[in-house]
Amino acid sequence: MNDERPYTRKELEARPDTFPERGPVCPRCKTRIPQFADLSSLDEFRIKKLISQNQRILATVELEAATGCSKRFAKIWVLHSGRPDSVGTTAPCPYCGGQLVTALAKQCRHCFMDWHDPDNPYNLKNPEGRKGSKL
């Protein structure tokens, strides 16, 4: 059964700290990702912004406060940014077209290009080719 109904605050407060039994399933890890009926769009935006800034612990604490969920539910939600990590949903590498690991990736595991500095992309297998490199 594919039950994706969101949890209410009342449900969460009465629930023991177990794994979610409802929510979309991540195709990679097979974990159900809890959804929250009482998560406002403003709170969701704020929490997702914390995730994008790599502040996952703060995002977890904020999600617990906003929804009344357990730490386990919050960690699962934050790890998945609230949705299943579907294969094929990230942008392709701008250099080789290979599938990137995440939507925020700035380097490719296929061609080893790194573009954290967009003005100075370089190949991780050849870091000496990087402008200004002191290697």
- Distance from first to last alpha carbon: 55 Å
The major β-sheet equals: 2 strands, antiparallel
N-to-C series of helices and strands? HHHHEE
User: What level of helicity do the residues show?
Assistant: 25-40%
* Net shape: elongated
What's the total helix number? 4
Q: Please count the beta strands (DSSP E, at least 2 residues each).
A: 2
Please describe the topology of this protein.
Elements: H1 9-14, H2 41-52, H3 56-67, H4 71-79, E1 113-114, E2 122-123
Antiparallel strand pairs: 1-2
Helix pairs in contact: 2-3, 3-4
Question: What do these coordinates show?
Answer:
With 135 residues, this protein is mostly helical. The protein folds into two domains: 9-79, no CATH class; 88-135, no CATH class. The protein has helices at 9-14, 41-52, 56-67, 71-79, and strands spanning 113-114, 122-123. Strands 1-2 form a two-stranded antiparallel sheet. β1 (113-114) and β2 form a beta hairpin. It is elongated, with a radius of gyration of 19 Å. The N and C termini lie far apart (55 Å).
